[in-house]
Amino acid sequence: MTKAKLASWNRAKGFGFLSLSSEPKAKQLFVHVSDFSDKKLDPEKLVGHWFYYTLAKDKQGRPCAKRLSLVGAKPAFSGKSNDPGKRAGLSAMAFFALLGALVLLHKLPIALLVFYCVLSVVTFALYALDKSAAQAGRWRVQEAKLHVFALMGGWPGAMLAQQVLRHKTQKQSFRWGYYTTVLVNIAALVYLLSPYGEPMLLQVNHALSSILP
Prior knowledge:
This protein is of the alpha+beta class. The chain has helices at 83-104, 110-136, 143-164, 172-193, 198-211; strands spanning 2-10, 15-19, 28-32, 50-57, 63-70. Strand 4 and strand 5 form a beta hairpin. The relative contact order is 0.11. This is DUF1294 domain-containing protein. InterPro entries: DUF1294, NA-bd_OB-fold.
């Protein structure tokens, strides 16, 4: 691995450039926020610092930097605890436990619980696929598709993926979009549990029963 200095960073867009020499007009190399090995680093605060990197190409064949690590930083051990990931896991478990309790109380159909589980697994897989594509410079999963699956009921899987995979946690506009899908889901669930939503709940149960085995 070679090393270069981080010359600039755009927090809003999540990318910056490495300077390949000390000359004022030195050639610069593109780097995306997802390409830092340590996801806890704040690149904006590290402009002017040196990084080790691996030279690669993006999906258009242009040179870019991958697997950046701060020069002089202590190695991160894989066994280090991931507190946000644990909290996301506990939150997802609490939500599914609530759904399970509502199913046992005959407030919700079991088909809805199964639907949430399936959508969460699929959404987590999409996040993992997008992260892998970002690291390899391949075509990415569209952000709109990630939001659609979260909106359909996969938001617990999206929450878990964001924190466990450390993916899609920097872009604020995406985060607000995700929060919107969560609020819409919770509002819809509250409505279905209300007396006004009972007819729709019956329709949802019928529709899901025809889809799920």
